[in-house]
Design brief:
The structure holds two protein chains of two kinds. By secondary structure, chain A is mainly β. Chain A is built from no helices and twelve strands. Helix content of chain A is 0%, strand content 52%. In chain A, strands 2, 5, 6, 10, 11 and 12 form a six-stranded mixed beta sheet that branches. Chain A has a four-stranded antiparallel beta sheet with strand order 3-9-8-7, with no helix packed on it. In chain A, strands 1-4 form a two-stranded antiparallel sheet. The N and C termini of chain B lie far apart (35 Å). Classes of the chains: A mainly beta, B mainly beta. Chains A and B meet through strand 5, strand 6 and strand 10 of A and strand 4, strand 5, strand 9 and strand 10 of B.
Chain lengths: 116, 118
């Protein structure tokens, strides 16, 4: 079974629209970490944010915001007033436990296209 | 500047040949990883290493081999046993220190190598 599910394969929005990328995870660990990465057309993954399982506070960074809800095992990502530069593939990932080298479980990614 | 370098960026291989992808990091990170990405798919873990001279198989290790002789280097060899090697390969590293347990730390990624089998 998939540990991280990103049900939205592709999303297209018109510039300045808001868009939410969904991420649902599955784990039995009480200690875990969630991440979002951006993969622009160049291919290199860029780290955006991490959240640990003990901190359910939502976070806002400029036009980006993240909503972490343990009750629904979701860690959704919202881009406000989208821009063409936001066009990329976005990955959600899960890491369980405490130790370096634990496997990251990546979702299949959501390809976002922002139309000018 | 600290970071991860992968070379070459594009690689072409004839069927039946082994090929080695380079991954070097100067971030002093303990853990290193190799992922494979196919079009429209997520990242699948090939191998990972937590310390020098030690590595573990990931989900799709068959047809691949690695070595970790130095902390900063983690080369991946795609052997002729790999049936469908054409893909985008990403190397990553992760620090072993930090608050909240080491798994708290994000993985840093290299620019990737696109391998095509002719």
């Amino acid at each position: 079974a998939q540990k991280v599910t990103q049900a939205q394969t592709e999303i297209s929005v018109v510039e300045k629209e808001d868009v939410t990328l969904d991420c649902v995870y599955e784990t039995r660990d009480t200690t875990y970490y969630l991440f979002w990465y951006k993969q622009p057309p160049s291919g290199e993954l860029v780290f955006l944010i991490r959240r640990n399982s003990f901190d359910e506070q939502n976070e806002i960074s400029g036009r980006y915001s993240w909503n972490f809800q343990k009750s629904t095992s979701s860690f959704n990502f919202t881009i406000t007033a989208s821009q063409v530069v936001d066009s990329a593939v976005y990955f959600c990932a899960l890491s369980e436990g405490w130790y370096t080298g634990n496997q990251f479980y990546f979702g299949t990614g959501t390809s976002l296209t922002v139309i000018p | 500047d600290g970071g991860i370098t992968q070379s070459p960026k594009y690689l072409f291989r004839k069927e039946g040949q082994n090929v080695t992808l380079s991954c070097e990091q100067n971030l002093n990170h303990d853990a290193m990883y190799w992922y494979r990405q196919d079009p429209g798919q997520g990242l699948r873990l090939i191998y990972y290493s937590q310390i020098v001279n030690d590595f573990q198989k990931g989900d799709i290790a068959e047809g691949y081999s690695v070595s970790r002789e130095k902390k900063e280097s983690f080369p991946l060899t795609v052997t002729s046993a790999q049936k469908n090697p054409t893909a985008f390969y990403l190397c990553a590293s992760q620090s072993g220190t930090g608050s909240g347990g080491a798994s708290y730390n994000e993985q840093f990624f290299g620019p990737g190598t696109r391998l095509t089998v002719l």
